[in-house]
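thread from #wetlab-drylab

HS: before we spend reagent money on co-crystallization trials with SN-glycerol-3-phosphate, can we at least see a predicted complex? here's what I'd submit
DV: go for it
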Amino acid sequence: PGGGPGRARSAEITNVAHRGASAYAPENTIAAFRLAASQHADVFETDVQETKDHALVLIHDTTLGRTTNVEDVYPKRSPWKVSDFTLAEIRRLDAGSWFGTKYKGERIPTLDQALDDMRDRGIGLLLEIKSPDLYPGIEERVAAALRRSPSWLRSDPAERRLAVQSFDWASVRRFHAVLPDVPVGLLGTPKAADLPELASYADQINPTFGDVTASYVTDVHAARMDLLTWTVNDAGDMKEAARLGVDGIITNEPDVLRRVLDEA
Ligand code: G3P
Ligand code: CA
């Protein structure tokens, strides 16, 4: 592995804002990413998918219904898959009003837009390739977007500037083959026995909090990888995650996590 965000050589726990500061602003919008930075998250996490015309957009669900007004704007196009809409169509959608009137007019961002907007805000990026089976070739297009924004690539790994993760480990491998200098993470909980082999390309193992034990953390570290856990919103759970020795905590409430880490 080429090193990576928050690797075990750092004693500090990385504060990762899940879909941005998504407890307080509509997930996966520029507003949520900026708020994460102002709440002193170290990193913001977001999900990348592709439009019909292969633009890279940041949204969690593979359909547009939950987090936009797509049902009003395009009532006849159920089930409103991301991949059935062009970027121009998606840019017409309101991705903020569902969360609160204050956020009316927020748009689904493109990856390029987020890379550009967040570049100088002192925050890193944990980019999840979401459902890559729906988007053959997405790894190359994500790599191309990152190359268009070289300041995200040009940094000391200790700065925890950028990592790419997915639940689809084959996709993570494909991405790693294209851009080997970017640290990569595997979402899920691989068997401890498989960790040494996975460490041939992976830098992070990122399990759900319920799966994390002190001995699993030790196993991940023994394989020279980091462990970031999700999605931890309760202050007591944050303290417990810290006690178990995790390297990063992914939370909807980076302000709460910042307080917990500062008090520790
Ligand atoms: O970063 C971890 C987390 O984002 C994985 O789950 O469903 O929120 O993308 P999900
Ligand atoms: Ca995610």
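DV: Residues 14-58+110-263 form a domain with the TIM Barrel fold (CATH 3.20.20.190).
HS: ok that's useful, forwarding to the group
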